[in-house]
Amino acid sequence: MKTTTSNFHWKCKYTWKQSAHNTKWCLIGCAIGDLGTILFFQITGIPWSTLAIMSLAIINGLITSIALETIIMMRQQFNFHQALKTALGMSFISMISMETTMNITDVLLTGGAMLTWWVVPIMLFVGFITPWPYNYWRLKKYNIVCH
């Protein structure tokens, strides 16, 4: 009886580099909407609950990430429909994990919905590290990328 073995491994430097590049674009898109929303509420002082602000920040982060990825793919000769479908389908798990961990980090370190000079780099680091192995896995196993 023949056994099928997988060639998957975690040691490919090229795949780590490419998946880091893909994760970086996802992080930029998510951070624009997420941090922008938190900053808006911090500056305006609109009296929303921390949960409401963080929920809106996550939604806005997902929207801006999808928008940015769609634009990037359209610049790579995808039509709008293909680009939007790809952005929605391929990297949504990455975006959700990124957004969730960024906001959990903010809540744990500041109480939530509070940007300070020291918390933003930590949020971005956690937001990058969380989906990066998943993006590596998808790229290595299925050759599926977002960008």
Key descriptive features of the protein:
globular; mainly alpha; 0% strand; disordered N terminus; 147 residues
Distance between the termini: 40 Å
Strand content: under 5%
User: Could you list the spans in which at least 5 consecutive residues all have pLDDT below 50?
Assistant: 1-5
Report the structural category: mainly alpha
Order of helices and strands: HHHHHH
Number of domains: 1
Alpha plus pi helix count: 6
Overall spatial form: globular
The mean pLDDT is 90
Secondary structure tally: strands: 0
Major β-sheet, in short?
Answer: none
Describe this structure in words.
The protein is mainly α and 147 residues long. The chain has one domain (25-142). Helices cover 75% and strands 0% of the residues. The chain is built from six helices and no strands. α1 (13-44) crosses α4 (92-110) and α4 (92-110) runs antiparallel to α5 (119-129). Residues 1-5 have low confidence and may be disordered.
Provide a concise account of the structure shown.
This protein is mostly helical and about 150 residues long. It contains 6 helices and no strands.
List the helices and strands and how they pair.
Blueprint: H1 13-44, H2 50-75, H3 80-90, H4 92-110, H5 119-129, H6 132-142
